[in-house]
Amino acid sequence: MISYEYIVSDKQGLHAINALRLSKAASEYESRITLKSRKGTADCKNVLSLISLGARHGECLEFIVEGQDEIKAIDFLKEFLQTNL
């Protein structure tokens, strides 16, 4: 298990387009990728679950990755988040 914390820098927060991109990319990995916020948890492979968190600008999110390809998945997440969220 690997975890990574990220503070949302997008002024619109985790909106539908970013959530869709994140869930689509997360689905390419075998590992389970979970997102924790102050409002709860979401499966990163489920776009509706991500949107329901309503993560806003400045909010700290914790990504938890568990599985065979967790190192590849967390490396991807770090890059994705910095360029998209």
From TrEMBL:
Pfam families: PTS-HPr. This is Phosphocarrier protein. It comes from Lacrimispora sphenoides JCM 1415. Its main location: cytoplasm. Residues 1-85 form the HPr domain. PANTHER family: PHOSPHOCARRIER PROTEIN HPR, PHOSPHOCARRIER PROTEIN NPR. It is found in: Cytoplasm. The keyword Cytoplasm applies. Keywords: Cytoplasm, Phosphotransferase system.
